[in-house]
Design a protein that fits this description.
Elements lengths: L2 E5 L4 H12 L3 E6 L26 E4 L5 H7 L5 E4 L6 H6 L1 H22 L3 E7 L22 H20 L2 E7 L2 E2 L12 H11 L4 E3 L5 E2 L2 E2 H13 L2 H4 L2 E5 L5 E2 H12 L6 E3 L14 H7 L7 H14 L12
Parallel strand pairs: 1-2, 1-4, 2-3, 4-5, 5-6, 6-11, 7-10, 8-13
Antiparallel strand pairs: 9-12
Helix pairs in contact: 1-7, 2-4, 4-5, 6-9, 9-11
Amino acid sequence: MPKSVITGGAGFIGSNLAHYLCHQGHEVTVIDNLSTGSTENLLPEYSESENEPSPNQITFVKGDVRDRVLMTELLQGADFVFHQAALPSVPRSIDDPWTSNDYNVNGTLSVLLAARDAGVRRVVYAASSSVYGNTEILPKVETMKAWPLSPYAISKHVGELYCRVFNEVYGLETVALRYFNVFGPRQRPDSAYAAAIPKFMAAFRQGKPPVVYGDGEQTRDFTYVQNVVRANLAAATAAAERVSGRIFNIGCGNRISINSLLREIKELTGSDVSPVYIEARSGDVRDSQADITAAREAFGYEPEIDLREGLRQTLAWFERRSEQPLQLSGTH
């Protein structure tokens, strides 16, 4: 049975990955300091499908990835490390760049050092499409020059560079996956730094106008979380000569405007409220779309769940946890 350690595994993407790996027969250990995650995300319910609990118990360790002694001990005997731990959000990093750098850069370095010293087979690093910044050419391809527009984007790019160096200098197998706007179950709508889709869904469900930064014509490659977790396992188990030391985009290869996204969610929820528009935020990228050719060729990545179906499944997940269920519309 492969042994996998997920840093930040009580968070949104990490917990979805933890349940998925359990279904794939992995022994899973999660480390999380619970600054943004929750142990409720690790409960054995509604993991890979709506009615299929996780078959294996997830071992949870409360701790901080910046603790090198703890990390080195925890990674002993691990085959794979999925490094999801980070302090997310572009606006948060602009408000407090020091803390974002500390968590994201020092945390990544700590994980890589521990993985090297523990003899881990491979580290899969959660990178970010934010490293591209604003590029006139779309879709964005991995060979483009990185041009971060925020402290968060800088910190994620530094993590990529550390992964490459540890691969070249120490022989540690590393793979960096640049996520494009991931959404899905377990993504919180109640944080000041919450992502767009859960905030929009919560607003429409509550009959409140969703807030849009800018004119709403900015575009994103929204990617359902199950596509991302499958990409993680594929990248972890692919032949080293195809992936080690490399960076890959993980998206759907499409883009949609925020205004079009709002219309989709409004139709699904049956809401009759309209969004309100306020000033655009500093550090936000105008347009984003992934070229996924490299991931497809290297480890067979193919997004299996499209935006519409991902929105339907996400809304259904929120509804199962609501005291007042809302009838889905426009899904037949």
